[in-house]
Amino acid sequence: xxxxxxxxxxxxxxxxxxxxxxxxxxxxxxxxxxxxxxxxxxxxxxxxxxxxxxxxxxxxxxxxxxxxxxxxxxxxxxxxxxxxxxxxxxxxxxxxxxxxxxxxxxxxxxxxxxxxxxxxxxxxxxxxxxxxxxxxxxxxxxxxxxxxxxxxxxxxxxxxxxxxxxxxxxxxxxxxxxxxxxxxxxxxxxxxxxxxxxxxxxxxxxxxxxxxxxxxxxxxxxxxxxxxxxxxxxxxxxxxxxxxxxxxxxxxxxxxxxxxxxxxxxxxxxxxxxxxxxxxxxxxxxxxxxxxxxxxxxxxxxxxxxxxxxxxxxxxxxxxxxxxxxxxxxxxxxxxxxxxxxxxxxxxxxxxxxxxxxxxxxxxxxxxxxxxxxxxxxxxxxxxxxxxxxxxxxxxx
Length: 397
Ligand SMILES: Cc1ncc(COP(=O)(O)O)c(C=O)c1O
What we know:
Elements: H1 7-10, H2 16-23, E1 30-31, H3 44-57, H4 59-63, H5 72-86, E2 93-98, H6 100-112, E3 118-123, H7 127-135, E4 139-146, E5 149-150, H8 152-161, E6 165-170, H9 184-196, E7 200-204, H10 220-223, E8 229-234, E9 246-251, H11 252-266, H12 271-283, H13 286-311, E10 317-318, E11 326-330, H14 337-346, E12 349-350, E13 352-353, E14 367-371, H15 377-393
Parallel strand pairs: 1-12, 3-4, 3-6, 6-7, 7-8
Antiparallel strand pairs: 2-9, 4-5, 8-9, 10-11, 11-14, 13-14
Helix pairs in contact: 3-12, 5-12, 6-7, 6-11, 8-9, 13-15
Pyridoxal-5'-phosphate binds near residues 128, 204 and 246.
């Protein structure tokens, strides 16, 4: 049969990262391509205990349909933590539990954008979000990142020229893929522009808890004066990614529509895991657990940065993240990213080419993303040496 795939989906390609996963598994291969949290960050023993307790004491709640907004005790615990840690939560705000931050991003676009509306994003940006926006018929406009976050001047050029912009999608802290954090000045400038041009900001912050150096910067949501920031968070990088628990905090008027959209999509987020998550938040010390993850990633990022400093030719630049799980390397002008990625793959070292993250898929890139949360220490050192040899071999000085 000739399947007539919808216009929206016919041109969408599978994530380059998922494709790279298919090449993994060769013994001795090293993957810097993942976006996964390190499995040592999963609190397995606590989860097993909570699962037992839930099925002994309250199996019906766990196994029955739940309410779309989320398991009430979890909503309250998440709202309390957001207030305590991030000063987020205005009187007009509400909070909904979603099936991973990914769903929060998609639902926001679904509720706010008509087909043909524009979503502005950092260029490069998170492929999962970009594909969600594309699948909903939004136009994407990428704004370059500087080492201080999204470039406000370039952002204003887009906002001036395009009256169809509905919102800015931004990952201001430990950005995926670049590992960059927007500084306070940038955030003030961007928020002022959002006010001037009357657009919303979708602030995606799945890595915000994972700072291992430098100073915290206030979230957009905590600086929001008039309900224009929609905040998306997730437990994927601090408790478990397979649990699929994220949350949106936004003005009630927006959230009430998001509830309807979620009802259509999946009725509610898995109740059992919401209960496990609630037990974890109320009975364990999440902040101490996060401190342990920060220590692990501080060590791994430090190791990768040292290996890059010691081995990479000076013309290959890279970001020095203060948290999160990625850094971003760029080849010098005139060097082919395709050739670099191909040669690395031949040596069983896998990186994600920058072309996987561009707002315009046809846009060329000289950059690639490196993940340090998953590889072992030995793999980080060995893998970076292999990449450095390839760069030198290609004439990078
Ligand atoms: C920037 C960003 N946002 C959102 C997500 C989605 O996370 P989840 O759906 O697991 O909460 C990810 C996952 O890697 C991400 O990198």
